[in-house]
Design goal:
By secondary structure, the chain is an all-alpha fold. It has 2 domains: 36 residues; 72 residues. The chain is 88% helix and 0% strand. The protein has 3 helices and no strands. α2 runs antiparallel to α3. The two termini are 47 Å apart.
């Protein structure tokens, strides 16, 4: 009789494990159906957003620095300072976009 209980208990554990795995797969399938429009192109688009968020302020900072260097020459390189300031502003901008999209994804889940 002890053998039968152990076998029944083990079968119950196996059935519970199987049901858990099926539920996990079903949850993944439902999640993928919700996000079926987000393909590889979505990820590449995110790279593009982050790249533009950093590149545009950097280029504006360099252009502004070069204009200041030509207009008012000094011993300091305003182009280099504009480059650093542009990269800092761009990184802050990129972090904002990533947080915004991440919070949207978390809301959907």
């Amino acid at each position: 009789m002890v053998e039968i209980r152990r076998t029944t208990n083990r079968r119950r554990q196996m059935a519970d494990h199987f049901a858990e795995k099926v539920a996990q797969r079903e949850a993944l399938r439902i999640n993928s159906l919700k996000h079926k429009n987000e393909t590889v192109w979505f990820g590449l688009g995110m790279f593009g957003i982050v790249g533009r968020a950093v590149a545009i302020p950097t280029l504006i900072g360099v252009a502004l620095g070069l204009w200041i260097d030509r207009t008012w020459p000094s011993q300091y390189s305003w182009a280099l300072m504009g480059l650093v300031a542009g990269v800092i502003v761009g990184c802050i901008n990129a972090a904002y976009w990533v947080r915004k999209i991440r919070s949207r994804i978390i809301e959907e889940e």
